[in-house]
Amino acid sequence: MDDAVKQPNDRALRNGLVGVGVVLIFDGSGGMKRVEPGVDHAAAPANGFKLIVGNSKAPEFKIWLRDELGEFNSGLITAPTSRSRCTVMDDKALIVLRVVRPGAAPQDVGRQFLTVWIESNRVIIASELNILDFLGLSKVDQPHHAPVTPADLIARLALRATDRLEPLIEMLGERLDGIEETLITHSTEKAQDNLEQLRRTLISFRRLVWPQRDALSTLEIEDLSFFSDRDRLRLRDAAMRTARIGDELQALSERAVLVHEEIIDDRAEQMNKAMLLLAAVTVVFSPLTLITGLLGMNVSGIPLADHGAAFWFVCILLVLIGGGIAMWMRKLRWF
C-alpha cells in the first residue's frame, strides 16, 4: 500500500491555501503584483498596501503570524469564532467576517470565517476560504481594478459576502410563497412543518447578517488615521447593503409570523366548525333521548305500553321532532 503523503495541488499552493501563504502588493492606483513569500520583498508603495493571505489552519502560516505579530495578536487572528466582530487596537483593526459556502442551501449556510488584520500599509487575511478566487485576484495579469486601499479591500470582501447571500434570500422568499400557496389548498399540517423549518433558517440568517453589519459600521466610525473619507464611504456602502439584506430577512420573518397566524386561525376555524357540528347533534338528540328515556321506564302507566303499533308511533314522533329541530337550527343558520 502506498504510504506516500498526498501533495497539495498547484492551485492550492498558488492561492495560499497551504504553506506560508501568498503576498500581493497593491500600488494604490488599481494595479497589483505578486511577490513570493519567505523572501525579502519590496515594501508597498507610499499610496499602496500589502496583502498577505494564508490558511488559518496551516502550521507554517501560524508560525509566520506568531513571528510577525506576536503571540497575543496571532492568537486573535487564528482563534476559532462564531460571530462577526470588529476590534480596534491603537491604529490597527481586527475584523471577522462570515461567508456562506459556495452553492450552499439556505438551511445549511456553513461557517466559513475570514479574519482580517488591518494596518496602514498592510492587510493580513487568515481563512480556510480561497480569498484570491473570492475577490477575483487569483490572476496577476489583472486589469487595473484591484483594491486601492485597505478599506476598499474590506468593502469588497463584505460586498462579495453579500452577493452570496442574495440568491439564498430569494430562495427563502420563494419557499414562503410556496407555503402560502399550500395554505390555499388547506394543507395546513404540511404548511406548518415547512414554516417551522423556514423560521429556523431565518433565525440563523439573522445571526449571520446583523453582526456583520455591526462590524462594518464599527470599522467605519473608528478613528483610524489611514482611513480617508472615501474609505469610510465605501465601508458605509458595504454596511448599508448588508443592512438591506437584514431588512429583507426581517420582512420575511414578519411575513412568516403572519402566515403562522393564518395557520392558527385556519385551525381555530376548523375546530369551531367541528364544535358547532357537535353542538347541533347534541341539540337534536337531547329531546329525543329524553322522550325515549321516559317511555323506557320500568313502571306502570306508560302510555301505549300495550298497543301493538306503539313502537312505530314513537319512531315517527321522534323523526318529526328531530326533523323539526333540525329545520329550526337551519333557519337560524347554525349549520
From TrEMBL:
UniProt membrane topology term: Multi-pass membrane protein
Record flagged with keyword Ion transport: yes
Protein name: Zinc transporter ZntB
Family of this protein: Belongs to the CorA metal ion transporter (MIT) (TC 1.A.35) family.
TM region positions: 276-297, 309-329
Molecular function GO labels: cobalt ion binding; cobalt ion transmembrane transporter activity; magnesium ion binding; magnesium ion transmembrane transporter activity
Location(s), subcellular: Cell membrane
One protein family per Pfam: CorA
Keyword Cell inner membrane annotated: yes
GO cellular component: plasma membrane
Main location (coarse class): membrane
Protein's organism: Devosia aurantiaca
UniProt KW keywords: Cell inner membrane, Cell membrane, Ion transport, Membrane, Transmembrane, Transmembrane helix, Transport, Zinc
InterPro entries tied to this protein: CorA_cytoplasmic_dom (IPR045861), CorA_TM1_TM2 (IPR045863), MgTranspt_CorA/ZnTranspt_ZntB (IPR002523)
